[in-house]
Known about the structure:
The structure holds 2 protein chains of 2 kinds. Chain A is α+β, with helices and mostly antiparallel strands. Helix content of chain A is 55%, strand content 16%. Chain A has a 5-stranded mixed β-sheet. Chain B folds into 2 domains: 13-183, 3-Layer(aba) Sandwich (Rossmann fold), CATH 3.40.50; 189-391, Dehydroquinate synthase-like, alpha domain (Up-down Bundle). The A-B interface holds A 108-109, 111-114, 117-127, 129-130, 149-151 and B 4-7, 125-129, 163, 165-166, 168, 209-211, 262, 363, 365-368, 370-372, 374-376. The complex binds nicotinamide-adenine-dinucleotide (NAD) and fe (ii) ion. Fe (ii) ion is lined by residues 146, 198, 202, 267, 281, 285 of chain B.
Amino acid sequence: MDGLLSLIKRQGSSGGKKAVASVALLALGSTFEMVSEHSSELKKEIADWQDGVVMLLGVFPDGPAMSVKKENGGIRFLGMGMCDADLKVLFKNLDSAMMVLTGQMGAHTAFAQCRAVVYGNLGAGMQLSRALNIVQKFILPSFMLNRTFKRPPVFSSDDLLLKARVMATLAPRMISGVMRRQCL
Amino acid sequence: MNPEYYEFFCSVKIISGKKALSNLPYEMGLLGAGNAMIITDQGVVGAGLLEHVKAAFDGATQKIGVVFDQTPIDSSVKVVNELAALYREKKCDCVVAVGGGSCLDTAKGVNIVISEGNGDLMAFQGMDRLTAAPKPFIAIPTTAGTGSEVTAAAVIADTERGVKMPFISQKLYPHVALLDPRMTLTMPPRITAATGMDALTHALEAYYGIQKNPVSDSFSLTAIRLINRYLITAVKNGADEQARMAMANASLCAGIAFSNSMVGIVHALAHATGGCCHVPHGVANTIYLPWGMEFNLEKRHEIIAELAPYFGVAAGGDPRAAASGVIRAVRDMRRELNAICKLPLTLKDAGVDESKLEHIAKSSLDDGSITYNPEEVTFEDALAILKKAWDKE
Ligand SMILES: NC(=O)c1ccc[n+]([C@@H]2O[C@H](COP(=O)([O-])OP(=O)(O)OC[C@H]3O[C@@H](n4cnc5c(N)ncnc54)[C@H](O)[C@@H]3O)[C@@H](O)[C@H]2O)c1
Ligand SMILES: [Fe+2]
């Protein structure tokens, strides 16, 4: 994440921010898929999601964005780009997206500061937000989680092992994520 | 406390006081409208309030195109769509809501359908989805609680699918809010108490929530001061016009505050309880308010302590003690209301079955209000509050 931040600072331009937001969303999407296979906490959280539902997280008006689909009890990362999702959570601009995606601001603070909107059922938006919090637990370093979460997340020994695996496999998963084409 | 960042918006023209209602045709004229659709309910009609509205049109060029007086409690998608068709059939050019939150939210739903020209309300669920300019819309509240006359929110039940659909958009603000003392005089004591406690909950949750800001704080404080001074009087003596007007203004101020700073766990639980057990919104808030404040005490005692003078609690000294004093004062107010009009103080008294608690806890987590609650809320946290609120005051 620190690497990401210095990249933003160096680049500064909206093109650079877009690139960084894309990388962060890619990491989030591919990790969502992986964690949904192994974390009992996330499995429980998404248990009630309707099979086939497509959820998108991105930046208004035309991305970057990533989307995921509930499939066979787990999550499939569909890829990058805007699509016709059942629910969209959109940051109003790139700066707001960057703050959350790079772990500088919690999602609840982004909503409290009116930096993001939900298109679709607000209840489903809450479910996505809770699930993404669990995914972030496996991506962000603890000092960021402690600073941005209302209550710092608790790690079981299984969680710690999973976090190590997530980190070790992040790069290859992101490369395969780039290969996936748009959802639907 | 200075927020890192905030946004604030309220576009409603407020006309409040003696014979305010007489301005209705004039305000319609300013909005370029001449033919009103009145949306109200049986309770309002039964209380004779529609006569005041009709009398306001005496000698005016504007007229009433149609009156719909069958609005259901908590509104419904079916009714909204039927009303949109009626609006077109009667060639109305203005929506006038006369009632409590149920009528006002129904009118907001109708305005979505007629302005956007799309009968599928589902398509507009969420935040900032409306793009068309809203039709002229005037709100005349007859309860003093929801503040819906000055909020950007509407909640409409889809009874077929068994879900409540929230809509948030700055295009949902009425153009004008007319507060006339005659319109709340007839509210029975228990509805006065419950709706007044809804307003107090808006003001408090907005004040100690994570979206608080200096502008909405000032509206919260005004509401808290007025409610402390006038709610009991309005419940005890419904004919007291001064108390009624004070409560109408308090509810409006609390509405402006929470439309910008949102609410928290108390509302999340109240919405979930209303959805599954049909406990009136104000009653549910009354039950949960002290428990919700206690739940946030650790993180927010310094902010809650600032309210001590408004509740007649000794300020200064230990903020934790002062904040606990505020919560005690809220409990005392509830007990007094219970003694006057039997306002329920526990879920058991409100007729909620204990077997429903887990369901309420689960659905409260999907309520957007939870986002703005200072403390994180898990299923276990929500259930713990519900178990206390079930039979303890
Ligand atoms: N849009 C918002 O910002 C917002 C905020 C809070 C609550 N709400 C919604 O508002 C609804 C509750 O509204 P409410 O608490 O105002 O109650 P309500 O509109 O449901 O009315 C309750 C009862 O009181 C009667 N009544 C109303 N005014 C009266 C009067 N002056 N004299 C005699 N009887 C009268 C009504 O006929 C009805 O039977 C809920 O659906 C809630 O979800 C909306
Ligand atoms: Fe309310």
